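Supplementary notes for students who missed Thursday's class. We covered one full example, reproduced here. Read the sequence, then the structure, then the short commentary at the end.
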Amino acid sequence: MSLITPGEPADLARHVRTIPGVTNVFTARPLLARLPEVIAAASATDADGPVADVLVTTDRDEVTTVSTRIATSVDDSSVDTARRVADTLLAHTPDTARIQLQIARIR
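Structure (token representation):
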């Protein structure tokens, strides 16, 4: 698999959306910063498409953190889906990257 640079979160999100069991991808920004997205996600339909992407940050020590929240399908194990997402993100980011993943919704 090709390595994605930290400046390409949209590419990471595209990879995540192709993983079996993932029904949507949401950013992991603080609640107040993402309040409009939360409201949109609550009323979203499958045809609405993704509400937000993967958030990639680099701290002053040059450690990259990849954060995202996903919605998973009720037809698949959420734990297995989260593992597939984490494995995909790890495969497409630098070896030193930290992955923060939350399951936001099961639907």
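Commentary. DSSP finds three helices and four strands in the chain. The radius of gyration is 13 Å. If anything here is unclear, bring it to office hours.
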